């Protein structure tokens, strides 16, 4: 019979991934954001030690891709060495961002750190705990087959924990890698599925537990709210509790303010100051980057739209009076030309805008589109397509996505 133990389930650390958007434009924020993913991993280690965890599971994307230098790997080794010295073991399944085909450098990990094979599912036994961990890493970035279907069967008489990097049935913000269904995982007989890949924390099933911890650090304005890891307590082979704990260092927020009743700029800025105060308080006073959405009307709206740089500066100045830890990533003033009025779904506009601030999306678009350009017959390239193809040839993801956004707006908009 298994004993009583605690483990920490983390995923999607994306070590040394740059935080999108604001970090490129604001030197002060860039300094804070530079090592945020490293500090988040250190916070996961602190959490495991503080909770007396027996082991830590990392369900994919420990790294964000091929290292720029050895310091990325060295930092991971240093943090896992802290766990090793505390007698805490680690099991890692590598995902699409740190698949074998993408990571070209490796450092020897400390004793007690196990990396799952990318050839087939393998099982690691912690016999002193009565735990069997099953998992498989990605060999290639685009792992499109259902690898869960070939996972090792449960070990009789042990607590069986399966580690998998997957989008399950699919997710609008993530590629459909290692697709499978909740029903399949439920039927597998394992006691806990430690998932990764989706950056939002969620419990998809409790019998057995199928859990996403989300990523440990939000990386752009689409990844708002608390980010961290799961602390899981097991008693006699039964999961007794699953708690999400914050490990992030920097927060992102997208507050909205309805200023249509504001009579003047003073009243508008006063109301904006209130929602900014709520944003920083909700982040536990962590450094917070904000994309503010403001609704206005009439002459005040015209004034803001006529000089957006001035209004951005006004909002930035108000943010500094609220907190030294608050930065304005962008101010979006809703106008009569807003996408919703023209007929574009607001969710689509938000997704397209977010893509422009997401380095992963830019890189994926560049990698996917550039090889196709040379295969297009010359006769298919007209004047409208030329700027788009030029951006693709130059692997200019920003221009490519901006052009795609304009094309989507033109094709989906309706006449007023």
Automatic annotation (TrEMBL):
InterPro entries: Calcineurin-like_PHP (IPR004843), DNA_Repair-Maintenance_Comp (IPR050535), Metallo-depent_PP-like (IPR029052), Mre11_N (IPR041796), Pesterase_YhaO (IPR014576). Coiled coil: none annotated. One of its GO terms (molecular function) is hydrolase activity. Keywords: Hydrolase. It comes from the Bacteria. Residues 6-199 form the Calcineurin-like phosphoesterase domain. This is Metallophosphoesterase.
